[in-house]
Design goal:
11 strands, two-stranded antiparallel sheet, nine-stranded mixed β-sheet, Arc Repressor Mutant, subunit A, alpha/beta, 45% helix, D-Maltodextrin-Binding Protein, domain 2, single chain, elongated
Amino acid sequence: MTIVQLEYLLAVANFGSFSIASEHCFVTQPSLSMQIKTLEEELGVTLLDRSKKPVIPTQAGEVVLERARRTLAAYNNIREAVNEMKGEVSGHLSLGVIPTVAPYLLHKFLPRFMSRYPKVELEIREMVTADICAALNRDAIDTALVSSGTCPENIAEQELFNDRFFAYVSPLNPLYERSSIRIEDLESRELAVMSEGHCLRNQVLELCPGAGSGNIIRYESGSIETLMRIVDCTGGVTVVPEMVTEFIPEARRSQLKPLAKGALSRKISLVVRRTYVKSSVIAALKGCILESVTKSN
């Protein structure tokens, strides 16, 4: 049994596919399959049910995977400890980012992080919160950028910054003439919201609990830009985070309206499993994000 075999097994379990796992591990599919087959022969059990699509672990496979995750975490922790002793930030880091953050934040800190830590191989995946939590629990990703309070207790949050909410109003809507908007004003209006699975949708509907009395437009997309286009053509209203506002053209800035209660916002956090490793790399990432956000404000 080798570390490589355990890594390949975990990759197949995470992706549910030999082909995708082989691409992720930068190895040919026959080589990856052979290593897992050798491991199964050594243990005398079948670890993966290859008849299922996606491929799933067998009962024996689940037992082995649970211990493999702990083994690989301990193995990576040795590397982490040695790197810290040498004062070196290096290795592979897999980062998940929710779709309502990725387009508005990544460009701010990525150049700084890549320049400062050239020995870190950063892999980024855009994922909704539920998929991020599942991936963290499977060790398929190391850390993630999410909206605070949206992950279970076994996932630890490190708060980064507040992201205020603004109303985005069509010029065709009577609320357009207002300098600021009360939550009560939104509850009986046409309110465009994100589709199921996006935490921003839940936050907006919690913010406006009476919004169901109006015509809620649900668009099956993670694009805030699409919601704003819908508002423009329907005379509606939507709620957008502050990080979006700098991307709105000057000609449409008048459509942004502060909400009357100044404390209305979401918090953006960096999340990890409570048993996480790679602490020095994640701390370096957090530092670059905070620097970038501070300089842009």
